[in-house]
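Troubleshooting: if your tokenizer reports a length mismatch, compare against these two reference records.
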Amino acid sequence: MPPGAARRGKEQRVRVMPGMLEVADRERDELWELSLARDQQRKRQELDAERYRWHAGQAERLKRTMSELVEHHEAEARRLVEGEGGSAV
């Protein structure tokens, strides 16, 4: 094939009746909206999973921190009651 020459295959001719383009446009728009809704749903699920992981991790971190803080205060209270830190309660 010489340079610049266009390849020609079987050409299909589509006969367009009045109103057909409107139907095709409407179907295309409906498919696009469905695709968009599916994509948005998938993104929401991904964000929900990410939020779940963050909150679950944060809960674990807080449990660890709080338990350490509780242990510290209990030890201080024992120390004060046993008379090691000044006047007893």
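Reference record two:
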Amino acid sequence: MTGGTVGEVSDHRADDDHDEGPTDSSGAPLVSSTIVCVDCGSTAHLMSRPDETGRFWPGDLVSYRCEDCLDRWDLIVPGDDPEDDHGPEW
């Protein structure tokens, strides 16, 4: 195995000329490769993989694992419409 770091999200795309996928209203990607762990404050890395188009979409479930405390975080990708962010109807 060559290069990379544990938890690093690699980008294996055949076509480098396409857009980066959905962004929020500020232009930021909807899914970050890392987040701050709510429990310990360390870095949690993205474990989920995008769909066959190479993208994540609003409503997708993404999972992160903390590199220190090993907690798992499952998050729903938000959309721009607040009406869409009410969560599942359980």
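Descriptive notes for reference record two:
- The CA atoms of residues 31 and 51 lie 13 Å apart.
- Residues 1-18 have pLDDT under 50 and may be disordered.
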